[in-house]
Structures are given as structure tokens and as C-alpha cells.
């Protein structure tokens, strides 16, 4: 089907076609998808956000003087984030289109804030989000990753300090790390960065909106935000645990001087002078208005209640996993339940859970760090805990009966050498990159591949997917 029809299609038919396409997607509501989406389970919130989005969808963030409503909403969102994340009267920030954009801008501000350094470098634990590596790649900043203990999955602050060089422009850490939900030791890392005269960014895109509320509920959340000396910037995604529609993130800087290098300005052409605080120039006001309406509607007390339900669900899911012999739960510090196993094929288990309506995120081994399964737990999971526990036991039994994946003979020899189409055929991937019913063989192959080969395979496969169908 082409989006450009030969003749106009009636609105009701267009919406019916859209609903049909959406029918093949994973469920975004109902507490059965443990990645990608964040569901508070609040009645009426979708309708409110959609109405706010529609009201400002055609407002353009390119020029805040033309649309002061958008400027006001952005300032309100930055102020709310500063309130939650230890900011003060000096704190400034920007609303971005997502966590990756926030991280790219944090790296840009650090790089451009040190024009005296010709070959800038970024230091971060190997567990830091891949978006920081993307930022380094885009901005030509060299990346120095610090290993973590393969058992505790924690980074040694002394190792981070030792990795700082005269060319380091930024040290980054996570609150929490996405893969395993563990909070980096922000205080000593920020202190080491400050002692070296280097900025320190805390990637709290994932947990920044829920960790402060969990602390208020009694969870032992260590200091991680702008209240920590040495932390110069922090990012938080409002489309995660603030439960706003995608995509809205906030990047905060301790003060205006630190933010200044984030901006782009260009006047050396005959058109309007371009001045942008973020990567995009034209920006729809829809997501920003939807986020503003979501925060206003839920309120501080509502977020505390949602954090309480998420806290219960996370603890209950972790307990359910820990009851299963052969599944080893990573210590829980946030709203992530991650687990490993030496006796159950986790990729087969993920398929068995998917067959029962539970969609998890398998994660591949990295060096000495074993493969794992990641569960992002939201408030909507709370009513489903009993169902999950029963289905998990059934899925584990089925995975044991199925046994581990046996890759086709010789396929490992093809890694990095054979065309991706040949590998796709050997794994049962259909024409045009269609996915097989069971993903365990694909995941097992990717798990066996070195990271560089894995990247090459997935880039090639994504390229297969992203091709328009020929017109009939």
C-alpha cells in the first residue's frame, strides 16, 4: 500500500486502514509489554493527552516569540523537572524530542564548552546507555568505556577516575542503567570529574522521574541528581515514568554558563538567523502540550501513588522470578527486573512468555556479563502480577522441555562473511525481512556474534525491513 493514493481516500476508511495496521503491533496498554512503552493504567489519560496534542500539533517551536504558549509550556516542564531532580534557582534546561537527543546535546555542550581540546573524549561505564555511544559517534568524540564487575555489574569509581585524561570533556553515569536497573555511584564519580575540572552528566532518562518518588516511599535511593556536587547536567524522559506520550525529554544544566554551548546559531546567510536550543529546528508543539497536560493532570500526589503501585509490582515480579529454580535475579534498585540463568535458555523462555502474551526484552552477553532478560515494570503491571507468576512457571517448564537453541551447522562460520540475505534464509527470516514466529534462533545467533559483527548484522537486517513494497 502506498501512503499516496491515486485518489483521495475517505477519512473513515483511512482510519480503518490505520487500525488494521495497528492490529499487528505489540500491546501498549494492559501491563503485558515490559519494554518500549510506559503505561500508568489511568483511565482518561490517553484522551486528555490526545486532546492537548491536537490543540498544539500545528504550533511550531522554531520561533518561541511567535508561539508564546509553547515557550511557557516548555519553561513549565523544565521547572517541574528541576523541582524533581534537585535543581535550584540557577537551573536551566531544554525540552527535547527524547532521551537520545538529550544525551547528544549533553555531549555537544561538553565538547563545545572546551574549544581548547582538539580531540575530546567521553568517559562512561560500559553499562551506560548506547545513546551516549551514538552521541560520541555523531559528534566525533572518542569513547572510553570503563568495565564493570561481571558479577555485581557495578563500576568502580576509582576506575572511572583513572580513565579521565586531559582530553576528557565529559564523564557520564546512569541512574539507573537501562540493562539491569542499577544506579551508578554518582557521588564519587561526580567528585572525581569535578577534581579533574570535567563535566559530569547523569543519564536519568529512564529513572529520573520515578527514583525521587521511590525515595519518598522509603526506598534506599542514593543521591544522584543536581543536588550532588559535581553533577553538571542531568536528563529525564517525560515519556517514561512521567507517562507522557512520546517523545518528550528534558535536559537540565546546573546553570546557564554550562548550557550556552548547547545552542546552535547561524546568521551568515540571507534568510532568518537560525538559533536553536535543540537539534530540531521545526518542532511540533503537540508532544510538549501533551506532556504539559499529563503532568498537570497527574500531579505530584498522583506520581507518588503511581510510584507506589510500580514499587509493589516490581517487588512482586522480582519475587516471582526468584521463586523459579534456575533463574537468578539481579539485585533490584529501581523499576527494572533483570534476570539471568545458567540452566534455562533465556531466548527460548522469552519466546514461551511471548506465546502467553508477555513481551520481554532479551539482552545479549557482553564479555563476561551473561545474557539476561530485561523487564521494565510500570504501574499497569500491578494487577497482572498473579497472572505473570503462573505463566512464568509454565513458560520455564516449556523452555526446559524445548531445550536450548541448536544453531544450524556452520552458521557461525558465516558471521561477518555471508550476505545478510543468506543468514536470514538460514534462520527462517522471510522475504522482506519478515520475522519468524520464534525469535530464539535469531537471538542465539546474535548472542554468539561479537558486538561488531552483531552491529553489522542488525544494520543490514534493519535495511531489509526499511524498504517500501513495490506498487501493484
Automatic annotation (TrEMBL):
The keyword Repeat does not apply. One of its GO terms (molecular function) is transaminase activity. Keywords: Aminotransferase, Lyase, Pyridoxal phosphate, Transferase. It comes from the Bacteria. Its cofactor is pyridoxal 5'-phosphate. The keyword Nucleotide-binding does not apply. Coiled coil: none annotated. SUPFAM superfamilies: PLP-dependent transferases. This is Aminotransferase class V-fold PLP-dependent enzyme. It comes from Dactylosporangium darangshiense.
